[in-house]
Design goal:
It comes from Nitzschia inconspicua. By secondary structure, the chain is α+β, with helices and mostly antiparallel strands. It has helices spanning 18-26, 31-35, 41-44, 52-60, 65-68, 80-88, 93-97, 117-125, 130-134, 180-188, and strands at residues 140-142, 145-146, 202-203, 207-208, 213-216, 223-230, 235-242, 245-250, 257-261, 268-275, 281-288, 293-298, 303-308, 313-322, 326-335. Helix 1 (18-26) packs across helix 4 (52-60) and helix 6 (80-88) crosses helix 8. The chain is globular, with a radius of gyration of 21 Å. It starts with 17 loop residues before the first helix and ends with a strand.
């Protein structure tokens, strides 16, 4: 079942801000399908069949089609039109094929008003408008389409971990200047305003020699339980129980397994991977925010890679490659959810 909510994934329908409900409705959700995390027609649509509204709605909900429709789509298979727009934003064939997120491109450091016309057209093509690009606390989700600003039982949003020097721009109509001169003065004071960001998801590279089949658990809510199968030679498999689904990667048997249950308010915030001289994943150790050490599972020798969640985020999924054992493993970070 595909993940579908992004930054709003910890909210039930009745808790969503009105603007988020509108975005979800455009993608085909209603209260029942949203709360049950059921796939809707949007999930089966290729990028080229998406409407502009669907692209922006998905982006608003933290599921930009760039990452969730075009990931692992190779440069030599995309249209010339898409290549043109991707190039305008700074992708090359190499960075596109390596799934560089837009936040890793220089263009992400710019405000909408600093973009060239070509870059604005490219950003629009991939699901952005000015409010979505600048990450303001917008009251207009789509160009020319106002949405209500008052949320329904709106919980506090977790803060973003993305460092940014961009100031915020207010979208409150009452704060808009009545003249061009006042507007300029207001823009000059942008640096004093507090930017409101949605949480950013990120992931590490996959560590290991590779091979086998790709896997990606997606961005999930709270991790309830992890089972790791390993022996002295390698890590064979990982089974993870997320809030609402379970993912199994590699081989999980009855022997040589360790199961770790996370308590309320407990999250995995760092991990250690051990590799032998051939790049085989020989051990995995996880660490929680409460000081617990889960592992080591396997032979904790050889080259080691220690990874830590960016500030304000926790482990929300695994990705990598696997067949009969874990050939490579990477870690996905996201905002912590209600435990």
């Amino acid at each position: 079942m595909p993940p579908h909510h992004g930054y709003a994934d910890k909210w039930f329908w009745e808790e969503l801000p009105v603007s988020a409900r509108k975005a979800a409705s455009i993608l085909g959700y209603d209260e029942n399908s949203w709360d049950a995390a059921e796939p809707v027609a949007y999930h089966g649509k290729p990028f080229q069949d998406l409407t502009d509204d669907e692209k922006r709605a998905a982006t608003y909900l933290g599921r930009n089609p760039l990452e969730f429709k075009l990931k692992n789509v190779q440069w030599n298979t995309i249209t010339e039109e898409m290549k043109k727009y991707a190039s305008a934003l700074g992708w090359t064939e190499e960075t596109w094929n390596r799934n560089f997120p837009i936040r890793d491109l220089d263009v992400d450091k710019l405000y909408w008003k600093e973009l060239s016309q070509e870059q604005k057209e490219a950003a629009s093509y991939f699901g952005y408008n000015q409010n979505l690009w600048d990450e303001t606390n917008e009251k207009e989700l789509f160009d020319g389409a106002s949405v209500a600003a008052t949320p329904v039982s709106k919980p506090d949003k977790p803060s973003s971990t993305k460092p940014s020097s961009k100031p915020s721009t207010s979208s409150d109509p009452s704060s808009k200047p009545s003249s061009g001169e006042e507007k300029k003065d207001d823009e000059d004071k942008d640096g004093d305003k507090k930017k409101i960001n949605r949480p950013k998801f990120s992931q590490t590279p996959a560590y290991g020699a590779g091979g086998g089949d790709n896997f990606d658990d997606g961005n999930n809510m709270h991790i309830d339980e992890i089972t790791i199968a390993a022996d002295a030679n390698m890590v064979h498999g990982i089974a993870t129980k997320y809030r609402g689904k379970e993912c199994k990667n590699g081989s999980i048997g009855r022997d040589n397994t360790k199961t770790f249950k996370l308590g309320p308010g407990e999250f995995i915030t760092s991990a250690k991977v051990s590799l032998n001289s051939k790049g085989v994943v020989t051990s995995l150790t996880l660490f929680t925010n409460k000081g617990a050490k889960l592992g080591p599972c396997g032979d904790d020798k050889g080259a080691q890679k220690m990874v830590k969640a960016p500030e304000g985020t926790v482990l929300c999924g695994f990705h990598g490659t696997a067949k009969r054992h874990i050939n490579s493993i990477g870690f996905k970070w996201g905002p912590n959810s209600k435990a």
